[in-house]
Amino acid sequence: MAVQTWETPMPAKAKWAQIADGIRAQIESGDLAPGDKLPSTSELCRQHDVSAIVVRQAINALKIEGLVEGVGGVGVFVAER
């Protein structure tokens, strides 16, 4: 009798984490340099077809990592390293 195995698929990565990964990759590659302004929340929502909450989660993760910093009423910028 053959033994049958079942592969459990990996759960999809959360959308906010995918967005954060994409922005992080742009920063690490130099496509986004220190001082560069990130697209607005509404623009990121349109680009990724997600709600503002999802974009804010991605930005907050990058803030915690020290990769970006927010300037009230102005926007989010790539942090100086």
UniProtKB/TrEMBL annotation:
PROSITE patterns: HTH_GNTR (PS50949)
Pfam families the UniProt entry points to: GntR (PF00392)
Transcription found in the keyword field: yes
Alphabetized UniProt keyword annotations: DNA-binding, Transcription, Transcription regulation
Domain of life from the UniProt record: Bacteria
GO terms classed as biological process: negative regulation of DNA-templated transcription
DNA damage listed as a keyword: no
Cited SUPFAM superfamilies: Winged helix' DNA-binding domain (SSF46785)
GO molecular function ontology, one term from the record: DNA-binding transcription factor activity
Ranges where the HTH gntR-type domain occurs: 13-81
Record protein name field: Transcriptional regulator, GntR family
